[in-house]
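Bug: C-alpha cell stream looks shifted between consecutive jobs. Job 1:
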Amino acid sequence: MAIIFVPFALLVLFLFNSLTHKLCLQTEMSQERQPNVFRTINILITILLISSYVEVLFT
C-alpha cells in the first residue's frame, strides 16, 4: 500500500503547491506573506495525507 500511497502523496503536494502559487499570483500577495501561506497549506495537507494513510492502513 505504501508503494502506491507515496507517489500519490507527492503528486497531491505538488498540485497543491502549484495551486497555492497561482493563488498568490492572482491575489497579488506580498512576498512577506507567501512563505507563511505555503507553510500553512503544506502542513495542513501533510496532516490530511498522514491521517488518510493511517485510516487506509487500519481498515
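Job 2, same session, no restart:
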Amino acid sequence: MKRKVPIAIIFVVGQFLAFFMDGSISQILSGTLFKYPNTMVPCLTMMWLILAAFFGNSKKLHLSAWAAIIGFIFDMYYTGILGVYVFIFPLVVYLCQVIYQQLPPSFMSGFLVYFLGITVLVTLGFVANAFIGQASTSVSQFLVNTLAPTLALNLVFLAILYFPIETLYRTHRR
C-alpha cells in the first residue's frame, strides 16, 4: 500500500522550489526579462502561496506564517533589504484569500484574484523601494515598464500551472 505524502510537506517543498525558480528564471532569461526599458519579474513564490490559499487549508498549512518566513528569506536572498516582503507577502496572501472566498471557485475567479494579488505585490514593493530611495522611476514608467510586463508574464505562468497545482491539492486533500 502506498503512503500519501502529507500536503504540508508538498507545500513546503513546492514553496522552496518556487522560490529558487524565481531566481533561476530571472538569471537564465535575464536578457529577455530585464531588457531596457521593460522589466518582467517572475513571482512564482507568490503564485505558490496564493494557489495554496485557494486550494489548501490555510490553517493546516500555516500560510500566514509561511508567507512571512518566505518573505523574510526573499528579502535576505534577493533584495538585501529586510522588512519589505516579510510584510507584503502575508498581506497579499490574506487579501487574495478573502477576495477568492467571496467569488465562485473557478479558473476565472482565480485569474482575477491573482491579477489583483500580483498588482498589489509589485505596487507595494515599488512604493516601499521608492520610500527608502531605491526606486527612482516615475509612477507612469513603473506602470508601463514594470507592472504591465510583470502581470503579463505571471498571468501566463498562472495559466500554465493553475490546473496542475489544483490537481495536486485535490489529490492530497483529506
